[in-house]
Amino acid sequence: MVQSVNPYLNFAGNTLEAFEFYRSVFGGDFPMVVRYRDFPANMGAPPEAGDRIAHIALPLGANMLMGTDVVGADAAAFRPGNNSYIVVAPDDAAEAMRVFEGLSAGGSIAMPLQATEWAELYGICADRFGVQWMISYEGATRFRR
């Protein structure tokens, strides 16, 4: 079963500014603001991207608005309009695999479902209609700063 579905937005270096704006509109506090420098080896981001936002979240009711700054090679392909994802958080690994395989069938895989610093299973795909998805099963993995 899926625990939650949340929008995820990418920005070209102004994620914090955008999320400060969203907070001014919706209220609330950021439960997490993580910069690339907070990860080992900047999570693969270039050294100059260390201060950029790797992940930020703002509660919107029972859901979260989430975002990141695109860096490195991904920054060149960034265009407003291709900067949104839907994040699906399944409650077990089998469901994460099922959902990822289903959504990516006939589409494309940007990042195979795999373990990361923040999730037991995490992957990015676009479905056959071009909708971009992030599947994130946290499992026993917890990101620690």
Overall average residue pLDDT: 87
What about the largest sheet? 8 strands, mixed
Q: Count of helices? A: 3
Helix proportion: 10-25%
Uncertain runs: none
Element string (H = helix, E = strand): EHEEEHEHEEE
* Biggest β-sheet: strands ordered side by side in the sheet: 2-3-4-1-5-8-7-6
Structure summary, number of beta strands: 8
Kindly report how far apart the N and C termini lie. 29 Å
InterPro entries: Glyas_Bleomycin-R_OHBP_Dase, Glyas_Fos-R_dOase_dom, PhnB-like
Domain Glyoxalase/fosfomycin resistance/dioxygenase: 12-135
Protein name: VOC family protein
Structural account:
- Strands 2-3-4-1-5-8-7-6 form an eight-stranded mixed β-sheet, covered by helices on one side.
- The protein folds into two domains: 8-72, 2,3-Dihydroxybiphenyl 1,2-Dioxygenase, domain 1 (Roll); 80-145, Signal recognition particle alu RNA binding heterodimer, srp9/1, CATH 3.30.720.110.
- By secondary structure, it is of the alpha+beta class.
- It has helices at 15-26, 73-77, 93-104; strands at residues 2-11, 32-35, 53-60, 63-69, 84-90, 108-114, 121-126, 132-137.
- The model has no long low-confidence stretch (mean pLDDT 87).
